[in-house]
Amino acid sequence: MNIDNTEEYNDPILYDQENDHYRTELPLLLKWVSKKQGPIIDLACGTGRITIPMAKSGHELVGVDVHKGMLDEAKQKSMDLNLPIRWVEQDCTKLDLDIKSPLIFSVGNSFQHFLTIEEQDAFLASVHKHFEMDGVFIFGTRFPTGDELLQPSTEEYWKSYTDSETGHTADEYTISNYDSLKQIQHYTTIRKYKNTDGEIVDEVSTNISLRYVFPKEMERILSGSGFEIVHLYGDWNESSITNASHEMIYVCRKKR
Question: Cβ(192)–Cβ(209) under 8 Å?
Fold first, then answer.
């Protein structure tokens, strides 16, 4: 992951406020980890949104991320809960841990942060290198449907929430521009903070770029990197993938 493409994560407290309640991935991951023994690796773990609840379930976890600020927040949260999670600041395309794992996972559509074929290949090579022979790799990415890719390039309302620190209402808007040649969506997120009178008192914009991969393309990428697909789902609830799906959830293992 390019550290220059992490502006959206420069405020870990805000990230948690907007995302920490989201746990959709957890049941599927816990189902697979229940069959495994040994250290479980969470790649691009962020502030530990999934790492920490998995550790709470009694599993040995290693969280890896390139973003120091996100990791610092993860460390503090796990210390407050007295959870013995190992946190590692590393680029996931150059992973160099002293362990092999029976289960490696990456959530939050993190695969989309690898913007080139070379970065994707390096990431998957890192995963492959740290696998046990019967290891499983689970990850998700957005399904590149027409609706997903061809979002408006004008400012569009997305969602609202209440800032827990200031009490202000935050309205979020997005602007999207898709580069078809590179398969990269360039997003701008605009957060408009309003006081109790509904007046805008602050406005903050962040940018991020995400690469989309099509299903048949992903088959080729995974096969070329030494993986076989065990399951492909349309969401983390293990639904069958269809043309109407919004996600692609992959359960993979080393080619035999």
Answer: no
